[in-house]
Amino acid sequence: MAPIQFGIVLYDFQALDVVGPIDILYAGSKDLLDPMAAAGWVTNDVASAAIDIKFHYIAPTMDAMQIMSGLSLNPSTTFDKCPKLDCLLIGGPGPEFWNDIPESYAKFLTEKAQEVDYFFATCTGGVVAAKVGLLKNKRATTNSTVLSYVATEFPETKWEKSHWVVDGKFWTAGSSFSGIDMIEHWVKGRRGEAAEALARESLDWTPRDINGKYIQ
Questions:
Q1: Does some domain include residue 93?
Q2: Is 157 inside a domain boundary?
Q3: Residue 200's closest CA among 55, 210, 187?
Q4: Which of 23, 68, 120, 210 is spaced 20 to 30 Å from 14 by Cα?
């Protein structure tokens, strides 16, 4: 089976909105577990249960992109050269971005939303998705602090105060940690139980369900 092609759009977002979900996926991935099995750190059974996923970090150019807190990320591809994707993830920016989204971003997000099987938005990434017209007549959520704003600004979307919301291919999460749990829910069944258990143990992490309750 071909690797899942997973894209992350780079702009000035909160780091955890994107880095958290990436690490959840990477912790149970073939890229991490195959070398560990070759070195004898994990069994071949664990490695064979890993998810096969390739990450693409996408921006208008190949210049480093500075995000919130001053952290810089290097794109791996550009809007023009981005390969076909299965999934796309956007993080939550501040109003200075969502109130003035560059045309190149709006065009890319709109086109890729039609292409991908899954479109993930964490925190105020949901505001970005709404701004470019992706959430009309859909259920969605975003950070609880801006729910009243988006309800007024985008009345054609049914906004819900929820850990995360799924409407077709669109998965929106309420906060950074909600996004981490949302991605863990999505990856369930896409890796084996052995890889899942190792990933959670290695991160010393217990996920929550859609109601915010810890999964035992």
A1: yes
A2: yes
A3: 187
A4: 210
Closest among 79, 74, 92 to 18, alpha carbons compared? 92
**E strand segments, the chain:** 4-9, 53-59, 65-66, 72-73, 77-78, 87-90, 118-122, 139-140, 158-159, 164-167, 170-173
| Phi then psi dihedrals of residue 90, to 5 deg | -125, 140
pLDDT digits 0-9 by tens, 123-162: 999 999 999 999 999 999 999 999 999 999 999 999 999 9
CA-CA distance, 155 to 2, in Å (whole number)? 40
In a domain, 146, yes or no: yes
Altogether, the residues listed in the chain come to a count of: 216
Q: What are the backbone dihedrals phi and psi of residue 130, each rounded to the nearest 5 degrees, phi first?
A: -70, -40
- Residue 198 clears pLDDT 90, i.e. is over it: yes
| Domain extent for 154 | 4-203
CA distance 169 to 35: 33
